[in-house]
Design a protein that fits this description.
alpha/beta; seven-stranded parallel sheet; binds adenine; 441 residues; eight-stranded mixed sheet; Rossmann fold; 2 domains
């Protein structure tokens, strides 16, 4: 079996940490018990491009229990937990291609290995697998990184066709990936159905809000050990992740400033009690900045130039493009790593800016990502969506689908059950009331 991990001897540590995570993942455990009996993924080859964490290991165990043959690579160069990667290879015999800190060539080389597995299903976090597959299908060679390009060009036309035609569907974990997929659908290039796991309510209400909220603060604090209380904390983007991050920063005593481009979200932030202003204004006030917008070039050269001496800048969006790092380099006289995950940029204007985790998602770069309890629901959606695609792919079109509502509801029910919480049922009278228009008073 081929694999590429940092150090296979870390496997035992990875197993113990995975066990700890699984204790907070009861919904996935229930699904695993059923999968063990029913084997809904039997005969399916599944390639996953996910953050290689303890929670992902629990998902891999579940998919394996369902009969799936698996291959896994990292969905970000800096998010891999090397002990978990070793555990998955050594004990679960899953070909894993992921090393924390890998360079871009290695990262895409790892994607290539996962595609060479010739999957029937893809499971993405950021759409790198699906987009690479489509660049190959459309022969958009210029968009492929060299190591992927030479491999794909080396395949015969028949082999390339087989690679694409072998796919029955895919799932997507995150907002950024869903945005890319919807663009593929709109442009008429999407070649197989994909389920947008991110859009399930049991995913983004919890994972994006509470998961990103808590783990981003965790990442920033582990990297810097700075005091939140009394600091001016700038959150760029007020989607579900931004709302969670702002809420948690406020809870720790920071003065939170929100920057937005959507008038509606900006208004929401105002009424949630935050100061809202343009990023150009915020850069002169902020002590700590964190982008969570899912967009490109949110903090640019002209903004870095206006920051206070000692400003700390991080990103918790999927890609590091939210920060204009090229622009930052242009105005920098010298740089040094001052502590793990903290790089000092001495600007030519005499001020210093501190970049965390190379601008990569800080919650996974310097911390451990979202806590297991929220990933329980996100990955329950992944497992059940994979099962759904296997059962229903023949009737699905080349579109981006939502997670079926009954799956979403069932996950919420299982999560409540695992917490020992009961809720009320509608009475007959209430059901009648909700379905009739005649009753007013
Ligand atoms: N994305 C954010 N947090 C994560 C985690 N703990 N595991 C996998 N993917 C994640």
């Amino acid at each position: 079996m081929d694999y590429d991990v940092k150090d296979i001897s870390l496997a035992e540590k990875g197993r113990l940490r995975m066990e700890w995570a699984e204790m907070a993942m009861p919904v996935l455990k229930l699904i695993r018990s059923r999968f063990e009996k029913e084997k809904p993924l039997k005969g399916i080859r599944l390639s996953a491009c996910l953050h290689v964490t303890t929670e992902t290991a629990a998902l891999m165990r579940t998919l394996r229990a369902g009969g799936g043959e698996l291959s896994l690579c990292a969905s970000n160069p800096l998010s891999t937990q090397d002990d978990v990667a070793a555990y998955l290879v050594k004990e679960l015999k899953i070909p894993v291609f992921a090393i924390k800190g890998e360079d871009s060539e290695t990262y895409y080389g790892h994607i290539r290995e996962t595609l060479a597995f010739r999957p029937n299903l893809t499971m993405d976090d950021g759409a790198d697998l699906v987009s690479s597959l489509h660049f190959i299908a459309l022969e958009k060679w210029e968009d492929l990184i060299p190591s992927l390009r030479s491999w794909a060009k080396g395949l015969s036309t028949t082999e390339r066709k087989e690679l694409i035609n072998g796919l029955i569907g895919g799932t997507e974990e995150t907002t950024t990936g869903v945005i890319r997929l919807r663009s593929m659908e709109r442009n008429g290039v999407l070649r197989f159905p994909v389920i947008a796991v991110n859009d399930a309510e049991t995913k983004h209400f919890f994972d994006n809000r509470y998961g990103t909220g808590q783990s981003t603060i965790d990442g920033i604090l582990r990297a810097t050990n700075r005091l939140m209380a009394g600091s001016s904390f700038v959150v760029s983007g007020y989607g579900w992740c931004g709302k969670g991050l702002a809420m948690r920063a406020k809870g720790m005593g920071a003065n939170v400033i929100v920057t937005e481009v959507s008038p509606l979200r900006a208004l929401e932030a105002v009424m949630d009690g935050y100061r809202v202003m343009t990023i150009a204004e915020a850069v002169e006030i902020g002590d700590i900045f964190c982008t969570v917008s899912g967009n490109v070039g949110v903090i640019r050269k002209e903004h870095f130039l206006k920051m206070k001496d000692g400003a700390i800048v991080a990103n918790s969006g999927h890609f590091n493009v939210e920060l204009d790092l090229g622009g930052l380099e242009e105005i920098t006289a010298s740089r040094k790593t001052i502590r793990d995950f903290v790089e000092e940029f001495q600007l030519r204007n005499g001020r210093r800016v501190y970049l965390l985790g190379e601008g990569r998602l800080i919650n996974l770069a310097s911390a451990e990502g979202h806590p297991s309890s929220v990933m329980d629901m996100s990955f329950a959606n992944q497992a059940l969506s994979a099962e759904y695609l296997v059962r229903h792919h023949r009737t699905l079109e080349r579109r981006v689908y939502s997670v079926p509502e009954d799956i979403d509801q069932e996950i919420a029910r299982m999560k409540l059950l695992s917490m020992g919480i009961e809720i009320d049922q509608l009475t007959k009278e209430q059901e009648r009331y909700l379905t009739s228009w005649e009753q007013g008073t």
